[in-house]
Amino acid sequence: MKVKPLQDRVLVKRLDEEEKTPGGIIIPDTAKEKPQKGVVVAAGSGKLTEEGKVLPLDVKPDDVILFQKYAGTEVKIAGVEHLLMREDDILAVIEEGAGDKSGAKKKK
Q1: I need a labelling partner for 15 at 20 to 30 A (CA). Which of 27, 68, 80, 105 fits?
Q2: All structural domains of the chain
Q3: Consecutive H or E run containing 76
């Protein structure tokens, strides 16, 4: 099944949280919170302005994002849980290599 969100909405699949803390303690399922990190599966065409123009979205499919804790509506598509949310509920896009603080390319 193919789903295309309308206007400024995006379809997000939550990413699984870690099973252990950095100290090595295993977290049981009952104590886990739902993750606020996910990957964009599909995105709408953009937000419609009062002038009738369409502003494109800042996110695209396959972007890894952080979103608000209670954002979106949970939907099941082909047996898999997803979130359908507005772009305004997205807090940040996580980019590859963001941990490199030097900004310089690594030499071999």
Answers
A1: 105
A2: 9-17+26-94 (2.30.33.40)
A3: strand 73-77
